[in-house]
Amino acid sequence: MRGEATVLHADLDAFYASVEQRDAPELRGRPVIVGGGVVLAASYEAKARGVRTAMGGRQARELCPDAVIVPPRMEAYTQASRAVFAIFRDTTPLVEGLSIDEAFLEVGGLRRLVGPPEQIAVRLRDRVRTEVGLPISVGVARTKFLAKVASAASKPDGLLLVDPSAEEQFLHPLPVERLWGVGAVTAEKLHRLGIRTVGELAELESATAERLLGRAAGAHVHAMARLRDPRPVVSTPRRGSIGSQRALGAAPRTADELEVMLTQIIDRLARRLRDGGRGCRSVVLRLRFGDFSKATRSRTLRSPTDRTAVLLAAARGLLQAAQPQIAQRGITLIGVSFGQLVRGAEVPAELPIDWAENARLDTVLDAVKDRFGSAALARAAQLGRDPGWDAPLLAEHE
Description:
The structure is a single chain. The protein is α+β, with helices and mostly antiparallel strands. The chain folds into three domains: 1-165, Alpha-Beta Plaits, CATH 3.30.70.270; 172-225, 5' to 3' exonuclease, C-terminal subdomain (DNA polymerase, domain 1, Orthogonal Bundle); 241-394, Dna Ligase, domain 1. It contains 15 helices and 14 strands. A hairpin with a 2-residue loop joins strand 5 and strand 6 (102-106). It comes from Microbacterium fluvii.
């Protein structure tokens, strides 16, 4: 007998664009695009015209010439995210953050205190709308995977409960692309075999799926199609890591361009470390290639640090090691996260010879940007670059 639908997947709708429409009433009901060179977010009015995240700015303007294009305001998005996550954590202690704008919540133990999961989801949506002023879609299901699919199906600004007795009826007619882990390459491979729906994939034997897609990928997507997802909601450590990522679109990128983007991300993240009085022990580079495959590379530092130069050197080394793959397969996303965060007091003191230049430079640059804004100073390599580059997508868990 299947259990109760107690997992919520809460996902803010067109998050960056919704924040812009919330803060500027004249933008409500109008197509809004956040970002210039690359679309970082699009309102549902713009999405209805074919605009998509990570699309090139020129193509987006051709599809929607009357769109209002606004520069990103990362501080506003971060503040909105923190306010929403505070509501999540006030709803249940079991919150697993996935990114700046979505999370899983386990509410199974709250029925006697506050009511059934669907009622909890209704109240959560009302609170986010009333207290933060943003629309949010929520899926309620027995497993994390089904809850995520349900929230996507309920968009925009909706709520969908997948009853355990109707899971096959809900999932099996959907296209295989809805399965977690089925990207464009895997979907094309399945289409060539005549498999287009989740139900058609579920009809295969597990061994057949593994033979067609590879052992790990085949086992994973087949289990999802058969409604097997045993993963529990795991509370995200509030200070485990900070990160930022940037969608690059489909245009080719040179090694120099990628290094400029990487530098911008590191500059911002390192400053956030120092602002929060923290250091980190690890640097993680995340890449998504042109064929939609992904790679993660990491380096553990000998001691925790908040120094931009040290963190940048580690990230550059990881990026250089990945250049052969990038040259062969192209790149559509670059991201960095700092892990194993520690309090500033745990960052070891540096020798005066090391402190003199790097630390002093960080301190001076931080002070100038605090007083005159983050755009007051830029590295020489950034001059003349597309201003849209200076707006990374954040995926932060704190």
